[in-house]
Design brief:
single chain, 150 residues, alpha/beta, D-tyrosyl-trna(Tyr) Deacylase, Chain: A, six-stranded mixed beta sheet, two-stranded antiparallel sheet, globular
């Protein structure tokens, strides 16, 4: 499972010209799921994200987690995070899990993240054509891969 995590001042998802979900201060997470991912990846990733200390403390040092700040989270499914551009110029998405596997894992990840956070997380719609808007705060952007546990 791969997550591209962005600390944001705000983020939103628009679908078919209408606002679907939005958050203010917190994280926008683009989530990619591989066929080999399972609930252990979900548990590890949800815990890691909610405990990451990337928000400023009173001295401006990255020393606070999203749990400490009361921030919000928006999760968007993005199979293209598992693209391979090794051969040719057209990316291959063979590592990305089929929707029959990835959609339930995406939903379970969002539920697990919500439990860790102590409140509902905002979401896109799995498989929809979405327009994602964000204001990256910092900018702070992290790449987290549950296979490598980093």
């Amino acid at each position: 499972m791969r997550a591209l995590l962005q600390r944001v001042s705000n983020a939103s998802v628009e679908i078919e010209g209408s606002l679907h979900s939005s958050i203010s201060h917190g994280f926008l997470i683009l989530l990619g799921i591989e066929a080999v991912d399972d609930t252990t990846d979900i548990e590890w990733l949800a815990g890691k994200i909610t405990r990451l200390r990337v928000f400023g403390d009173d001295e401006g040092k990255m020393n606070r987690s999203i749990l400490d700040t009361g921030g919000d989270i928006l999760v968007v499914s993005q199979f293209t995070l598992h693209a391979s551009a090794k051969k040719g110029n057209r990316p291959s998405f063979l590592k990305a899990a089929h929707p029959d596997i990835s959609e339930p894992l995406y939903e379970t990840f969002c539920e697990s993240l919500s439990k860790e956070l102590g409140k509902a997380v905002a979401k896109g719609i799995f498989g929809a054509d979405m327009k994602v808007t964000l204001t990256n705060d910092g900018p702070v952007t992290l790449w987290i891969d549950s296979r490598n546990r980093e």
